[in-house]
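Cross-posted from the bioinformatics board.
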Amino acid sequence: MATTQSGGLRWEHGLLALGLALLAVGHVQGLFFAPAEAMMGDVGRILYVHVPTAWADMLVYTACFGFAVAALWTGKATYDAAVEASAEVGVLYNALLLFQGSVWARPTWGVFWTWDPRLTTSAVVLVLFLGVLVLRRVIPEPERRLNLSAIAAVLAYVGVPIVYFSVKWWRTLHQPFSSPQTVDGSFITPLRLAAFGMIFLGAGLIGLRWRALRRGLERDLATPDLPAAAPALRLPGEAGGSAAGGAL
Amino acid sequence: MNEVAEPVATGVITGGWSYIWAAYGVTWAALLLFLGRALLLSRAPDPEPE
Amino acid sequence: MTPEPSPSAPTAAPPVPSTRPAATLQRRLFLVGSLLVAGLALSVVAFGDLGEDLVYFWDPSQMAAAGEDAVGATIRLGGVVKAGTVQWQPDANSLKFIVTDGKVEVPVEATGAPPQMFREGIGVVVEGTLTKSGVFTSDRLMVKHSNEYKAPEGEMSAEERKTLYTTVEEL
């Protein structure tokens, strides 16, 4: 196992440790030390996990968009790997966001789910980025995979600003933007700690996945997609591609 | 208070810790699982072709 | 297929054939195209007046303006619970109140106990139908929370909180 140089500490490990520490301190403070919310009571403490997840998810998706643009501009495997890594983390955060949101909605709004614009657009963005990941699994040719998944990521990203502004553009059950002006001072420290924690953790997770994916994709992309006229020659390349895909 | 019956809800939520634990528990569990899997995969030896 | 040419330096840029001019040009055209489509889609949503078609709930004035058309259809009605109008009969499991937007008032009959945050003066969205008699019957009541998160008053002084936080932050 420890034969390759992939062991050892890297920058992403630092980010992961910092992120986990900040998240833990923020959550302990939010759960046990911050006062309960005036109307929501203790249930209001879900704020410290839900809102940081939402903020971090937007940043992760924005990074994914940037990587997709860079991948299309340069064609480099390093950006191709970053697209996949950040899409994975974005989908993870997005799924958690929807779960936390519905667990919070039940006691406060009275329902687990309603097709309100904020909830609907968040769910749509989750499906779109899941689609990016699925696309990467089903395309064996490395260059096509880079191109199509990066295009899909750019298009999927359109949903992110729409989610953000949905509470402003349309009537929703979801509350509008929270800001330091609308959040009591005693809630802000744990909220900020948890938010930075989620963001650093997300960056560390992207780094970890990026490093694991990069080498295989570099190998894949070093072999050009063969023209469709030579299907017999293409099979070994496809086998190599799907083997690397299976190792993800 | 003649026509209006006793308040049905107080406007304040009491309890509800099961929701809190569900939100935090699932979030931490999923994050740690993803992290553990990513750590394992990033440390796996690089399969050298041939 | 020939074996891998250079597995030696993974950090150095591999000899990527996709940097050949035709492929590079194609990729960059893809980039420009997808950015254009993305920008177009976003501006359609942002400035395209979709607000009229994408209405999550009607307010009482809009429902009144719809007149007879509103009767019988399943709709969501949103507004504020008018003070002094809440009637709760636990035996009948029935909840009656008036929803208002400040201009039009709609009597609502809901079944079941509402969420704990329900009270006079709070925003609600009710799902149901408007009957001919002008009463809105609902089997799904949702409470709308504002974006204000407040600490309860008087539970803990600002001083006490501050000391608590500094203790935690020193960890």
